[in-house]
Amino acid sequence: MKIVLKFLIVMVCLSFVGCSDDEKRLEGKWQLRYYEFPDGNIQKVDSVFYNFQKGTFSAICLTADNEYETFFGNYSLHSDKISIILLDGYTENKYYERYLGWPDERCLFEVIELSSDKMCLQNGDTLCLFRKY
Question: What's this model's pTM, rounded to 2 decimal places?
């Protein structure tokens, strides 16, 4: 009986441990709306979507040929940082530079804003504004 009671207590405690509020807000599909560069220039974007789901990342890009290109990887969210690591081989993809353009398969973003419908990430000195899709 004591073992069953201890088991139930542990299960109840574990049920209170889960995703952070930021993790819950991050999950789902986000449409990239624009980049804001340090000189104040803004580049509008409407063909790139980031997806976050329990550590799994994908970027879906609608190409100029009206086809889709998808990049897969993993992400982790710690405090105000999102680290994304793409699976091997994507940096050689002909669409990589145009739609992602990271220096390599890893990218670290600082979370500037994250709400239920808006996300602003910063990579270096460039801001990326997303809307929940």
Answer: 0.82
